[in-house]
Design brief:
The chain is an alpha/beta fold and 271 residues long. It is 50% helix and 12% strand. The protein has a domain of 138 residues: Leucine-rich repeat, LRR (right-handed beta-alpha superhelix) (Alpha-Beta Horseshoe), CATH 3.80.10. It contains 15 helices and eight strands.
């Protein structure tokens, strides 16, 4: 009897191991996905494509098995930039509703409208949302849709991107974000970008939030808003926020320690 040797291939690997391998190519690290300078990473990906390198999502075209395993991973981190993006994703989730439950993280840059609310209704397991404040929410319908989508998604974490003075002067847009911060019953963590035009209404929303426990500031921003105001004192007095993260603070820690009493410093976590 002659035995025939057969070499193992990738198709012989168990699904669990294939998921691990595919994840290294398809899953954007969360620190990159929520980076306020995410555009730099996007440009790097475009540069790779322009030099002839295939985008990672071509892995879905290898075979049916790989598509079945990789598609949920690809949609677990979802970025919506335009109306076209939102419409395409909304149509896809309508055809494949099971994929919606795999979405965990969202970056919202634009395309706010009725379709966004539809996406929110089909993505019930979203944990964190990045809200780009550089985009102009140009209509009442867009603002209302964004507000309804946020409440439907009910994320426990929100990342607020760059927000300049002109954005905070657009009352309707600004109020929609303030309302969610102030009245959401799911929000636990709020992360502010390095450059945010911090207003009294934003401070009031944070202080009055019923559920927020952790707030993350860049050290530059915290230095600016803490000098003229009493944000830390108000947060400490309310007692709901347990931790205020001060990012990139190695060169400012001594200054904060000299400025604030020990009871306030206990809230601060220097990173």
């Amino acid at each position: 009897m002659v035995s025939v040797l057969r070499y193992a291939t990738l198709h012989d690997l168990p699904d669990e191991l294939l998921i691990e391998i595919l994840g290294h190519r398809l899953l954007t690290p969360l620190d990159v996905f929520f980076d306020e300078e995410f555009d730099k990473h996007m440009r790097s990906a475009r540069d790779r494509r322009e030099t002839g390198q295939c985008p990672d999502y071509v892995l879905l075209l290898v075979c049916k098995q790989w598509r079945t395993l990789a598609e949920p991973m690809l949609y677990s981190r979802l970025m919506l930039v335009s109306v076209q993006d939102v419409r395409q994703v909304a149509a896809f989730l309508k055809r494949k509703p099971t994929i919606g439950s795999k979405v965990r993280y969202l970056r919202l840059h634009g395309g706010f409208g009725a379709e966004l609310v539809g996406i929110a209704e089909r993505t019930s397991c979203v944990e964190a949302v990045y809200l780009s404040s550089q985009e102009v929410y140009s209509s009442v319908d867009a603002i209302g849709s964004l507000e309804r989508a946020l409440y439907t998604l009910a994320p426990s974490m929100i990342f607020i991107g760059f927000m300049n003075k002109s954005f905070s002067s657009m009352t309707d847009s600004y109020d929609a974000m303030m309302y969610f911060l102030q009245y959401s019953d799911s929000l636990k963590y709020v992360h502010f970008a390095k450059f945010v035009h911090f207003t009294e209404s934003l401070e009031d929303a944070l202080v009055s939030s019923p559920t927020v426990e952790t707030i993350s500031f860049h050290s530059n921003l915290l230095s600016m808003i803490a000098i003229p105001g009493n944000l830390l004192e108000r947060l400490a007095a309310e007692g709901r926020v347990r931790r205020v993260i001060c990012r990139d603070s190695a060169h400012r820690r001594d200054r904060f320690e000299q400025r604030y009493p020990k009871e306030l410093l206990r809230m601060l976590s220097f990173e």
